[in-house]
Each structure stands twice: as structure tokens, then as C-alpha cells.
């Protein structure tokens, strides 16, 4: 978005994506300022033309828009409050901000800034303009800040006074968890609402409406079920992405129909899988998150990591990401694999996988793809060992088979009256009393003395354990 310029009580359009601020136009006779939202032109992008004009047209976010919910009350003109809208791209943050500006019969003035281009100077100009408008005309200003997490602490602090005094009604949008990216004073003055990615049914509703609506494609194309499925997969919960891909596919289908004399005049152009693939830069990945491909690709992904092939692993990771697989699922599999197939051969593998899962949770896609890729390469190139899983599985098999036995008396809890009379904790030897921290003492039940579960390999860091563990066992068991 371009920086806003303030002159003569009028702020110019910010960008070419159809997002305009309210324009103050004096009404003859009363000297007051009246504002209306500029309607997008017929040449505006489909996503802009289909932007909801009322709450009834909003698709998704039912948890925030049900009757009585805070966001619905704000949009319908309830008590004003500043809001932080937190959620993935294409979930309606800008749309909801504009609807809030339209509350109270359009009495609120709407200004939008992008944190990518606006600085403290632009913020102060908007706040001062809002002060004058409120004093002269009693009109509050809705200030929408996109990607507020990119504002520095100084820039965020510059908002505090205006938000506190309600010179502006702040509606800030962020794709990152505001608890980690927004200063505490601003958080405490705002209502934090988390938006969710659209599910498949909501995306289908959105696509079908865009095909039929006069503001959209007005029935000029027909979307096949397979083409719709492809668009839904490619969208990955992002409404803007779904409509952008639909528009590109429609343009291609209509162009093909117009250039084919035999098909001209045969009715609406058809958007099928091939039409979508021709139109979008990403080929539709044959991948069903609920079907065979889901299990086949994740299986190939894990086996490629286990087989130490980082290139193949990155290929399967890319297939899952492009197809819209849940990144949390990928992160969970990496964490499991780190212990199952690497274990103590590289003790940092589990840390890397866990860190990637935290990035997925705190940052989200698409940036989290980098952390997932880093963890994938780390695990694929790490030395491998399955000694951990073999050890725990053998131990559990013995327990299930009844090889449990009584806990040796000297290991039992002695922190209660009468424990010593029962022999509990009597004779326990404290390892730290020994010079090397290891002494001879029985730890397993009698039936399991001498049973070895963990057998380290000579791969990676386990080589050191493979040399040290036999010495430890001999010392603990009193063997020479």
C-alpha cells in the first residue's frame, strides 16, 4: 500500500487492490462531512468486487459473528472498542474492519495504513486529522493497520494515546500471535479476536457465489466439481487466494472459448481441473488430505528422512505444503521421527523438530515452511538410530507379559511415618556419595536383573554411549 497523503480533509486511495478509505465530501447546506465507501469498479479484482457489504455476506468466522458475539456487536454499531484481528491471510480481517467503519449508518470515517510503508509521521498525521474531525463534526475515525506486527515498538507506542482517548477506533490485523508481536499496553487496550482459515465447505460457498453473483462472474462460466475441488485445495483456507485462482481460471476459459469458433456461443465456458492448472502458477497437486495420497506422501516423507535423503524429503515436504496439508500434522510427524529413527545418535534432532513445531504455532504459514524445511534437512542428514524405540518397546512388551516384579525395598518411598519399620528406603545408597557418581546397587525388580533394553549403536553421538554404557552397567551391577 502507498503512504497516505492528507490534504483538504481528504485522504487519497491507498492502493489498486480496491481498498479505499472513506472520502469526506461536504454536503451543501449544512457544512458537515458525509462519507461513503467508494465502490470497486468493474475492472477491480474479483476478490475486491466480491468483498462482503454486510455481515450476512461474510463467509466463515461463525465463532466471532454469532448473535451476541463481540465482533458482531462492534460491526452492528455496539459500544466502540479497539480490536486486534489475528489470523491467517485471506480470512476477512480487512473486510471486517471496513464493516466496522460502516457501522452507525456510515458515521465513522475509515482510514487504512500498511505497516510496511507507514511510519510515525504518517500515524501522527492521521491521528491529528482524526482529532480535528471529531472536534468539528463529532465523527469518530476507524484506523485500520494491516500487518501491525511489522510496526516497531516506537510506532506502536505512538498509537497508545489516541487509542486510550478514543480519538481513533483501532482495528489492527496481524498474521502473527499478537502476544509476541504487539506491545503489552496496546494489547491491554484492545479486544483480541482470532480468525480461522475457511474450511472446505465455506470455500465452496464463496466460489459458487462468485460464479453466480452479478458482482462476480455473473454466470459466464461453469465450475465443475473437480475444478472446484482443485481450487479449494489450492486455496488452503485463504478466501482471497481462492477467488484470485478462480478469476485467473475464468479468464483463461473465456479466452479459450472466444478463440475457438466451434465452441463460441455454446453457453458458459467450463472451468475444470485442466483450466485451473493452465491458469495458476502452481499445478494442482494430486493429493487428498483424507485419502490414500495423504498417507502415501507422508510415508514417503518419513522414509526419505530415515533413508538420509534430504532432497527426496524436501520434495515430499513441498508436495504436502503446496497441497495445503496441515503444517501441524507435518510438525508432529517430525517430532515423532526425531525420537523413533534418530534418538540419541543426534540429541539435537528432537530439539530441532520441536522448535519447528513452535514456529508453526507462533508464526504460521507461509513463513513456517522454512522451519519445517530446516528441521527436515536436519533430521535427514543426522546419524540414525532406532535404539530408543527398540528399548521402550521391549520394556513395554515385558510389562505386558507380566514381567513386573516388586520394587526393591531400598528404592521404595521412605517419606512417611512407619516406612522404615516396613523396610522401605532402608539401605539405599546415594550415588553422589561416590567419587565418580556411580556405585553398585540393584535398581530393577529381581526378575529383570541383567535385562538390557537400551542398546546404543555406534552412529553419531551414540558412539560415545556405546563405549560408556557397558562400563556403567558393570559398575552398577557389581560386575568386573
Brief summary:
The chain is of the alpha/beta class and 480 residues long.
Number of DSSP E strands: 11
User: What would the principal axes of the Cα set say about the shape?
Assistant: extended
Q: What helical percentage do the residues reach?
A: 40-55%
| Total of domains | 4
Tell me the CATH architecture of the largest domain.
3-Layer(aba) Sandwich
Q: Spatial order of the strands in the main sheet? A: 6-7-8-5-9
Quaternary organisation of the protein chains = single chain
The CATH topology of the largest domain comes to Rossmann fold
Rg computed from alpha carbons, rounded to a whole number of angstroms:
31 Å
Count of alpha/pi helices: 20
**What does the main sheet amount to?**
5 strands, parallel
Characterization of the model:
The chain is of the alpha/beta class and 480 residues long. It folds into 4 domains: 6-194, Rossmann fold; 200-279, Helicase, Ruva Protein, domain 3 (Orthogonal Bundle); 292-381, Up-down Bundle (Zinc Finger, Delta Prime, domain 3), CATH 1.20.272; 404-477, post-AAA+ oligomerization domain-like (Orthogonal Bundle), CATH 1.10.3710. The protein is built from 20 helices and 11 strands. The strands form 4 sheets. The protein has a 5-stranded parallel beta sheet. A two-stranded antiparallel ribbon has the order 1-2. α7 (153-164) links the parallel β7 and β8. The N and C termini lie far apart (76 Å). The model is unreliable at 1-37 (pLDDT under 50).
Amino acid at each position: 500500500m502507498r503512504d497516505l497523503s492528507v490534504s483538504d480533509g481528504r485522504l487519497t486511495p491507498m492502493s489498486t487492490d480496491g481498498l479505499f478509505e472513506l472520502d469526506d465530501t461536504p454536503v451543501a447546506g449544512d457544512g458537515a462531512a458525509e462519507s461513503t465507501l467508494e465502490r470497486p469498479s468493474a475492472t477491480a479484482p474479483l476478490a475486491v468486487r466480491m468483498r462482503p457489504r454486510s455481515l450476512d455476506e461474510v463467509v466463515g468466522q461463525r465463532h466471532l459473528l454469532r448473535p451476541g458475539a463481540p465482533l458482531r456487536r462492534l460491526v452492528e454499531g455496539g459500544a466502540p472498542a479497539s480490536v486486534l484481528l489475528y489470523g491467517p491471510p485471506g480470512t476477512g480481517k480487512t473486510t471486517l474492519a471496513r464493516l466496522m467503519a460502516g457501522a452507525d449508518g456510515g458515521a465513522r470515517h475509515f482510514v487504512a495504513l500498511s505497516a510496511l510503508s507507514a511510519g510515525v509521521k504518517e500515524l501522527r498525521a492521521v491521528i491529528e486529522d482524526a482529532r480535528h474531525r471529531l472536534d468539528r463534526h463529532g465523527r469518530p475515525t476507524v484506523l485500520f493497520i494491516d500487518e501491525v506486527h511489522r510496526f516497531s515498538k516506537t510506532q506502536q507506542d505512538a498509537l497508545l494515546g489516541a487509542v486510550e482517548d478514543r480519538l481513533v477506533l483501532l482495528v489492527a490485523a496481524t498474521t502473527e500471535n499478537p502476544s509476541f508481536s504487539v506491545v503489552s499496553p496496546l494489547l491491554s487496550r484492545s479486544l483480541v479476536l482470532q480468525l480461522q482459515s475457511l474450511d472446505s465447505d465455506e470455500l465452496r460457498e464463496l466460489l459458487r457465489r462468485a460464479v453466480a453473483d452479478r458482482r462476480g462472474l455473473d454466470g459466464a462460466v461453469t465450475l465443475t466439481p473437480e475444478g472446484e475441488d482443485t481450487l479449494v485445495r489450492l486455496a488452503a483456507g485463504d478466501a482471497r487466494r481462492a477467488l484470485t485462482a478462480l478469476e485467473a481460471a475464468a479468464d483463461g476459459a473465456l479466452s479459450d472459448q472466444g478463440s475457438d469458433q466451434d465452441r463460441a456461443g455454446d453457453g458458459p465456458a467450463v472451468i475444470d481441473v485442466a483450466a485451473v492448472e493452465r491458469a495458476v502458477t502452481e499445478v494442482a497437486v494430486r493429493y487428498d488430505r483424507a485419502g490414500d495420497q495423504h498417507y502415501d506422501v507422508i510415508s514417503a516423507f518419513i522414509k526419505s528422512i530415515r533413508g538420509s535423503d534430504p532432497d527426496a524429503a524436501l520434495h515430499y515436504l513441498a508436495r504436502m505444503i503446496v497441497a495445503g496439508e496441515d503444517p501441524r500434522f507435518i510438525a508432529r510427524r517430525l517430532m515423532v521421527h526425531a525420537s523413533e529413527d534418530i534418538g540419541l545418535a543426534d540429541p539435537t534432532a528432537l530439539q530441532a523438530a520441536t522448535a519447528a513445531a513452535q514456529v508453526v504455532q507462533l508464526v504460521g504459514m507461509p513463513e513456517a515452511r522454512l522451519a519445517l524445511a530446516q528441521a527436515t534437512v536436519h533430521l535427514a542428514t543426522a546419524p540414525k538410530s532406532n535404539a530408543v524405540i527398540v528399548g521402550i518397546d521391549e520394556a513395554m512388551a515385558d510389562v505386558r507379559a507380566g514381567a513386573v516384579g516388586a520394587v526393591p525395598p531400598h528404592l521404595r518411598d521412605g517419606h512417611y511415618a512407619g516406612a522404615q519399620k516396613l523396610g522401605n528406603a532402608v539401605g539405599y545408597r546415594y550415588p553422589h556419595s561416590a567419587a565418580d557418581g556411580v556405585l553398585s546397587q540393584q535398581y530393577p525388580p529381581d526378575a529383570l536383573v541383567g535385562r538390557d533394553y537400551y542398546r546404543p549403536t555406534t552412529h553419531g553421538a551414540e558412539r560415545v554411549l556405546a563405549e560408556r554404557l557397558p562400563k556403567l552397567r558393570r559398575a552398577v551391577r557389581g560386575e568386573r
